[in-house]
Structures are given as C-alpha cells and as structure tokens.
Amino acid sequence: MSKRVLLTGANGFVAGSIIAQAGEAIELHAVSRGVPIFGRRSPNQTGASPHPVFGHFTDNITARSHFRWHQLAPDNLAGWQRLFDSVHPDGVIHTAAIADIDFCQANPGICRQANVEFTRTLAKLCAAHDAKFVFCSTDTVFDGEHAPYREDDSVGPVNLYAESKVEAENIVAATRARNVIARLALVVGLPVLGAGNSFVEKLLASLRAGRTISVPPHEIRTPVDVITLGRALLELATGPFLGILHLAGNERLNRLEINRRIAAKFGFSSDLVLPSSAVNTPGRVQRPRDVSLDNTRARSELSTPMLGFDAALDLISRFSPISNQP
Would residue 283 count as lying in a domain? Predict the structure, then answer.
C-alpha cells in the first residue's frame, strides 16, 4: 500500500526535486498557495525541448495517478484542517518558508507568520492525525564560530531568519507528533521542474551573458545538491528515523570555490567569478561565517548517499535542462 505524503511549498526549488522523484509507492499531495508553475520555463529555459530525465514536465507529472495538487494559503486554518481530514497523510514534508535573509530582517512580522506560525499549525495537525512531520530547517541556525556542527551542538542564530527557524525547531521538537528536524546545508542545483529560487540558475544566466559575478570567499558551507536532498527528504518522510539530522555534502567549501567549480562544470571560465567583500556590503544582513555541517549521522542513518561536490555537480548536470549548457 502506498504511503500518503503531503508536501508544502510545492512550487519551490526543493519541492520540485521531491515531486519529480516521488515514485508510485508514494501518493504525493503537493500544496501551494498558487497553481502549479513547474510547467512554465524560465528565460534561460526557452523552447519546448524535453527535460533529459523527466521529459515534458507537466505531461509526465500532473497526469500521474499518485499525484495530487492542492491550492491552499498558509493562513487558511480551516482549509488545512479539511485537507488533513481528507488526505490522512502518513507523513508531511514542510519545505515552505521565506528564506530570503535580508527580506526577513526587514519584515519580521511576515517572516514570523510564514516560518514560525505556519510551522506551529502543521505540527499541531500532524500530532492530531498521527502524521510524521519532516521540518526543513537550515544550517544558519548556528553562529558560524565553532564549525563543523553536529546535531546536538548548541544553536546561535545571528539574524531574524535564523531566529525564526530556531523557534520553529523548538515548536516541532515539543510537539507530540513523530518528527524530524532536517537542517539543510546550502542547496545547489537547478530547478528540476523549472520552478523555485536557485542561485545556480542565476549564476549560469550571468555567465552566459558574459557578466562577472562577485561572491564572498569568507562564507564556508557544506553544499548539498537538490537531487540528493529530494531523495533524502522522501526517505525521511517514509522511513523510521526520528530526531535532528544534518543533510549536507561531504566537503567544506567557501562560496568562491563553490561558484567557480559550478562555472567550470558547466563550461564557463571560473575567472568570471570574483571574490567580494560582502561583509561590508550596505543593506546585507549579517551571515554566519562558517556553518559547515557534520553529516556523519545522515551517512549512517540514510540509504540515500551524501555526496562529494564533484559527484553532486555530476548529478546536477544530469538533471539540468539542456539549455542550461553554454
């Protein structure tokens, strides 16, 4: 019997990977405030060429017998109650969030409503319906001074976005629902279904236009590719693991190295990627310096392998739209 999984933020970057990879053993209920946008193509995905892995997005996915789309706003509490009552999900993957650090700092009320209160609503519903709750948190819950971080290390948020995620983590941990707090490292990749916010897509668009880009060399992360991440989150929603888990790649890299290796992988000169002094950029909210995550537990608990960066780039390239090549 297939497991019923409810997915929030269904038009997002990470959700696109989950939707594309959910097999017939999962009855996937994708939820977003809007209609599906993954059939649309971004400016650098012009033409009607099929995806090299999935073919034509809309035809192959929305027609699946085990896939359902639900249009529902986060603040429609009665609607969420009805949805849980009708779907009876076995698991919930909560990817929906406002992750723009600068926007969150400037709009604390909106940030809190999206990242904290919506999580609280879902946690309560999961507890009431005995659904496993997989909450997507972030590596930036740490202060960046004591990396690499393990799951039981103390958090220390340095901006409002990270504070909202820490508060949401505490809500999830305190709920009666079976839960997983999945802290995601920097997510790299291209929108598998043509939707979502991907810094790699923006990078390639700039490089294709011959423009240089500047990135901070002092920020250190353990990047995870969006394909591996989608697989891991599906495994967590349907498998036995409970608790906190760090979903991260196997390499600690600074942002300059990350961007230069992506450029080279897609056939562009890495000389177009320049170091910046982002610490002093006006209007840019403080980021932690080094939030490298220790993924030992994930490598032990999951059958989904965590990858080194070269292997991750190979996977990204395989799943990327044809027109993202130079």
Answer: no
